[in-house]
Amino acid sequence: GRKCHLDGNTMASRLLLRGAARALRARTGPLRPVSRAMALGGIPTDEEQATGMEKKIMQAMRASNDPFNVFKPKEYAGTKEDPHIVPSVTNKRIVGCVCEEDNTAVVWFWLHQGESQRCPSCGSHYKLVPHELPH
Ligand SMILES: [Zn+2]
Q1: Which residue in 22, 53, 58, 96 could disulfide with 30, CB within 3.0 to 4.6 Å?
Q2: Residue 11 domain-assigned?
Q3: Are 30 and 60 in contact (CB under 8 A)?
Q4: Where Zn(2+) is bound, by residue (predicted)?
Q5: What is the pTM of this model?
Q6: Measured in angstroms, how far is the CA atom of residue 11 from the centroid of ligand 1?
Q7: Is residue 37 part of a domain?
């Protein structure tokens, strides 16, 4: 009857809201543990808690070519004279720029060996330098 129909709608919109909240968390949260681990210069330790994109990034990092490394060194200004130094074992790699300290969106772009390149969003300078594989 009519009551059943209304109840069904209420339930559907509740489910929809839950799904949206989950999607939002997945979109805004995934990179923080990785960048914290990198800032400490260590191996990610909270892998147990990692899910989704986080896990993919950690697996890629362990695969040693490190394509998703989130690199946000504080010792470089990111200007033309003082670009962010990005170590790489190949002549190109993907760089994730957080642009601003509390930004939840990461700007990904390819960085090639040679001239320094700029983040397409905030204009920070990045320079790729040769880097030996850690043993
Ligand atoms: Zn940027």
Answers
A1: 53
A2: no
A3: no
A4: 97, 99, 119, 122
A5: 0.44
A6: 41
A7: no
